[in-house]
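Q: Convert this sequence to structure tokens.
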Amino acid sequence: QSSHGGGTAGKKGKSGGGSKGGSTKKNSGKKKSVKDETERYHEIKNTLEDLGKQYDAINKQRERAWGADKLKLIDQEIDKTKEAMEAQKQYLSEIRSNLKTDETNIQKFGAKFDDMGNISNYDQIVKDAVEKYNKAVAEFNTKNTDDEKAKEKMDAAEAEYKQFQDYLKQYEETHDLLIDEEQAMIDYQNQVYDLQLEAVDYEVQTL
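A:
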């Protein structure tokens, strides 16, 4: 996953000219800077899409071709599918790398995994996260409205719960994506085999 740190505003100096006895508070932590995170798999998905379009263009030509021209175009389809397989290998590599990151992140909240990579204690970690958040809410509701420490503690609890939700969703999305794209690789392999068989059959028919 490629990510670039979001730009942060320049720090301001302490305010001057305030009345004696008055004080000003910095707003650090009140506003969050934008996180500039590039879309996962953007480049490799574009590559696969381009290869798919190129394959379709060859396929359209092949449907109208005969004899040696048709066989030549089938070979081109095979070559293009093999190119897609190489790109798919890169795609799978990126997915597996991201899955390791996502696994580490959700493990911070106590997640465990079965042999298939599914979260085996899903219900428990969700229950624990909800209970922890609700406990923070209950405690916050007993405090006065001007209790800044209580507000900060509640903000931290909200941020932690949101992070849990984000990590959980991201892990499941990446895990499911890996399964789908592993099948896509198998489909490419089968496509090469089918095209090779088609070329042999066509050559025999035209002898």
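The chain has four helices and no strands.
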